[in-house]
Design goal:
Blueprint lengths: L7 E7 L6 H14 L6 E7 L9 E2 H9 L2 H17 L10 E2 L3 H9 L3 H16 L8 H10 L4 H9 L1 H17 L5 E4 L3 E4 L4 H23 L2 E3 L2 E3 L1
Parallel strand pairs: 1-2
Antiparallel strand pairs: 1-5, 3-4, 5-6, 7-8
Length: 232
């Protein structure tokens, strides 16, 4: 896991074609806004592909296949739409697509400016979920990226860098070790929370992260040092 100069680190694994991930993202963001030390939190966006090497297809068809029947898929979509609306998000499954999001993840990794990266992540969700834009065509991804201020250098880096694709795969391997799907949130590399949890649950996790760090700091403050070193 990468290091940070900030006090807290939250690593988030998600996929842009995961129906619940946008809802989870918004709920976490609202919880973070209520967190006392929100400015001390670094957010790391991690890659996870639900459909690696999968040819793009309509989302509704993919859900029917994965969930086994049309009724179950319809119930799931209605639930996501409801919770999406509650969070101010507009889900339009009829125009959504499901497939391999490698290029989208690598494009995010190519952006170094945290503010621009944040805008790009949100735009990828909104443009694909609400407006039916493709995440599998590079010209479509480039248009989305330019709209939020991603530089041409970052775009070209995304398409040419082998290292960024390796980093994407490393993200997935680490997530597999944790044994959970997406969305998944890891707090200070100590404990994880999976799923589109309620805002209150995310806030509780942030406070738990803060409390754990405080205990560690108090333990260090209680150390006694002598000529042979330090001990508690």
């Amino acid at each position: 896991m990468q290091t940070s100069s900030k006090k807290f680190v939250v690593d988030i694994w998600s996929d842009f074609v995961c129906p619940w991930c946008w809802v989870a993202k918004r709920r976490f963001e609202k919880a973070l806004d209520r967190f006392d030390e929100k400015d001390a939190v670094q957010i790391n966006i991690r890659a996870y592909r639900l459909a690696a090497n999968h040819t793009p297809e309509p989302m509704i068809a993919a859900l029917k296949r994965k969930l086994g029947n049309a009724d179950t898929a319809e119930a799931m979509m209605n639930t996501v739409i409801k919770y999406g609306n509650d969070a101010g998000l507009d889900y339009r499954f009829a125009s959504m697509q499901f497939g391999d999001t490698s290029d989208a993840h690598v494009l995010v990794k190519a952006v170094q400016e945290s503010a621009v990266k944040k805008l790009l992540v949100e735009a990828l969700y909104e443009q694909s979920t609400t407006h039916g834009k493709s995440l599998f065509d590079r010209s479509s991804l480039e248009a989305i990226a330019r709209e939020v201020g991603v530089s041409e250098e970052s775009i070209q880096l995304a398409w040419s860098s082998v290292e960024l694709r390796v980093e994407m795969e490393e993200d997935e391997h680490f997530a597999a070790q944790l044994g959970s799907g997406v969305p998944m949130f890891v707090f200070n590399n100590e404990f994880a929370l999976s799923g589109a949890q309620p805002e209150a649950v995310f806030l509780e996790a942030l406070n738990k992260m803060q409390a754990k760090l405080q205990v560690k700091e108090e333990d260090f403050a209680g150390q006694v040092c002598g000529i042979d070193g330090c001990k508690i």
